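Supplementary Text 2. Reproducibility record for the structural model of the 343-residue chain.

All settings were left at their defaults, and a single model was retained for analysis rather than an ensemble. We include the record here because the model underlies the residue-level annotations in Supplementary Table 4.
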Amino acid sequence: MKCVVWDLDGTLWDGVAVESETDVLPAFRPWALRTIDRLAERGVLSSIASRTAPSVLEALRADAEVAERFVAPQVGWQDKSESLRLIAEELGIGADALLLVDDSPYERAEVGTMLPGVAAIAPEQVPDLLDGLGSGPLTADARERVRRYRTEAVRKDAGRQFAGTREEFLRSCAMRLSVGTASDDDLPRAVELATRTHRLNSSGLPLDADRVRKLTADGGYTLLVARLEDRFGEYGLIGAALVEHTADAWWVRLLALSCRVAGRGVSLGFLRWLMDRAAESGAAEFRVDSRPTSANVELRLLFRQAGLRVTDDARAEGGPVTLGRSLEEPLPEHPSWLDITGR
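Retained model, structure tokens:
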């Protein structure tokens, strides 16, 4: 679950906003705002999907303290499932990463039918939702997630208004990718990426901090991480690659990137940086573990474009497919708009 989507009438407040005799919106239920704030503290976003007049959204946006709690809100007369689909598209996440809170059994059933991967609960089930969040340690990236999605909304709006080509807009963003060996402080976020990402996750390899420490202790493995920033702000730690070093190859056992960087050349930039470092180290071959899923088609297409092909010893029993390529052949071009530095 990456985003909880809230209904308005009967869920976040009592009554029906458009039936009010004044332009003042009903008061939010205090427990609902407390829940939204607690979700944000755990790195879980909140959005709105409400079948009501669009003017209600304008009234919500007039209250900055309330508006800042929500990302990609959808208010209108379309089906609730369509609103959820638009929210997932705007946030760049899978619809199955959403959870709907709605007082209407009809709306919950409509979403369950049209979007089978999306869970839907009644408001009275929210305490169970909070209990399920747990109380484990939070990464700095999780705490910053809501703010970064708001920044992403500004970034997307700038892209829509930009008059030039997509490549010209990306170049105007002044993106800077910094890649280097993970520190101990980076491990929680790297583990979070490996666990939470699906769209840009090569193998779904399960990771935990202790396992990474053991693997990297003798130099046989390296965990490399990538951070991204642009003129709009910092993305934070957005990529991780667990690399095994063999006698003649760099073998990427896991490549995971935040879905927030999809479509910007960052995945290719990170992959090319890894290939460059592998070639500089004297490796003759570059390999990647790839577990095909319905979610990671975009990343698998990138591997193919980068010249990675299924190897003869492609699949261990029950494991991922192994893709490989020679490092002596021409490598894919760096995205020209992306400035990449190592550390």
